[in-house]
Amino acid sequence: MAKNILTQKKFDELTQELQERKTTRRDEISKAIKTAKEFGDLSENAEYSAAKSEQEANEIEIARLEDVLSDVEIINESEISDKHASIGTTVKVYDMKFKEEAEFVIVSSLESNVLENKISDQSPIGKALAGHRVGDKVIAKTPAGEMMFEILEITRTGD
After folding, report:
1. 4-74, what's its fold?
2. Could you give the CA distance from residue 136 to residue 142 in angstroms, rounded to a whole number?
3. Which of 14, 69, 72, 143 has the least CB density, counted as fewest CB within 10 Å?
4. What pTM value is reported for the model?
5. CATH topology of domain 80-156
6. What is the Cα–Cα distance from 45 to 47, expressed in whole angstroms?
7. pLDDT by residue (tens digit) across 60-74?
């Protein structure tokens, strides 16, 4: 199984979230369960059921975060090259079908966010761009069909 590749910033965010869930969030849920128990009959107690469901969801997320953080590789952002597209780069392309420019930030799958144009290195477009240089033409085979791009510019995302 591949390591989870993260920037230091994302690693710190996930570590902080895990700590928050294991301490503050667990305490809040525990108090909510205790308060709900005081309402009496647990079989018809909506507050108790909701608190228990919240507890289960929190524990599942704790387990997921622990799993992610147990096998992580942190990218040294100062060593990222702007010579080719890879995680940690922003790639400006010309979409040959729609005749317009677009910009993608290539990140790990744990950091992708379509609304911010952050695409995973494992996505069809991320895979197609990876390793290519300015001037290269690439074809991405996406669920919506083939897309053809010309790479116009590559910059390190942190710059």
Report:
1. Helix Hairpins (1.10.287)
2. 19
3. 143
4. 0.77
5. Chitinase A; domain 3 (3.10.50)
6. 6
7. 999 999 999 999 999
